[in-house]
Amino acid sequence: MGVIWDAVVEAVQLIGSGAPYLFEIIFLSLRVSAIAVGIAMIVGIPTGYLLGVGRFFGRRLSLVVVNTGMGLPPVVAGLIVFMFLSRSGPLGDLRLLFSTPAMIIAQVLISTPLVTGVTAASIASVPLELRLQARSLGASWWQEAVLTIKEARRGVMAAVVAGFGGIISEVGAVMIVGGNIEHSTRVMTTAIVLEARKGNFGTALALGFILIGISFVINGLLTTLQQSGARYER
Q1: Is 59 exposed, middle or buried (0-12, 13-18, 19+ CB in 10 A)?
Q2: Residue range 224-234, pLDDT digits in tens
Q3: Closest to 158 in 3D by CA, of 221, 112, 226, 214
Q4: Which of 38, 126, 127, 178 has a beta carbon 3.0–4.6 Å from 185's, enabling a disulfide?
Q5: Quick check: 172 and 73 in contact, CB under 8 A?
Q6: Residue 53 near residue 123, CB atoms below 8 Å
Q7: Is 63 exposed, middle or buried (0-12, 13-18, 19+ CB in 10 A)?
Q8: Closest CA to 120 of 177, 77, 59
Q9: What is the pLDDT of residue 8?
Q10: What residues does each domain of the chain span?
Q11: Would you call 91 exposed, middle or buried from its count of C-beta atoms within 10 A (0-12, 13-18, 19+)?
Q12: In the 3-class helix/strand/coil scheme, how is the chain assigned residue by residue?
């Protein structure tokens, strides 16, 4: 317990000191994850909608692929991106390996199936009668989609929370494609691994507590948005 308490104290001291190194890796972690989950939303929500309401050949297989992707190990995602971006890979000429964009790509690969899968399940739970009524009132395809997503908004927000949670704390993928380069690609999780490897377990644990605190605050805000309309639904 003494080590844990010391780590909590060190975490508070690190934040209070305003150490540039600490805030550099915090901001990079948030920037990479925010961009990645934003892209995952752009891709995953429309795709989840189509899988949720569509009745087309290959839909079941598509859902199986998405659900399998939800369990994709981050290390595997990192290896896939690494092979594509390496010099011998098909995208090697872009020279993105060991860069922030490479980390974003890896996190998009992890978070998109999460956003898509949870969105699809949420959309599928919306009563068919709602969409049929919208059509009978002359709603366009776009208006019907917006209405359906609005009805399933709490589930869609849960998809965003799941997507963000799946990447803010992952380390394998960003370590492989980012390289944990100081002042360039070092984020909170890779900094924790580095400190642990150096034997600085107290500092590693302190950084871990800071990361947990950041995740708690962000997920708290997302959950508040998710639940904001609950009182009007009763």
Answers
A1: middle
A2: 877 775 554 55
A3: 226
A4: 178
A5: yes
A6: yes
A7: middle
A8: 59
A9: 79
A10: 27-187
A11: middle
A12: CHHHHHHHHHHHHHHHHCCHHHHHHHHHHHHHHHHHHHHHHHHHHHHHHHHHHCCCCCHHHHHHHHHHHCCCCHHHHHHHHHHHHCCCCCCHHHCCCCCHHHHHHHHHHHHHHHHHHHHHHHHHCCCHHHHHHHHHCCCCHHHHHHHHHHHCHHHHHHHHHHHHHHHHCCCHHHHHHHCCCCCCCCCHHHHHHHHHHCCCHHHHHHHHHHHHHHHHHHHHHHHHHHHCCHHHHC
> Tokens at residue 229, please?
């309309």
* 109 neighbors 44 (Cβ within 8 angstroms): no
Residues counted in the chain? 234
pLDDT in tens, 84-118: 999 999 999 999 999 999 999 999 999 999 999 99
Residue type, 188: M
Q: List the chain residues with pLDDT less than 50.
A: 232
The label of the residue with tokens 């370590």 reads 175
Q: Which pLDDT score, from 0 to 100, does residue 155 have?
A: 92
C-alpha distances in Å from residue 160, one per residue of 27, 78, 89, 137: 20, 21, 31, 31
Fold designation for 27-187: MetI-like fold (1.10.3720)
CA distance 77 to 54: 28
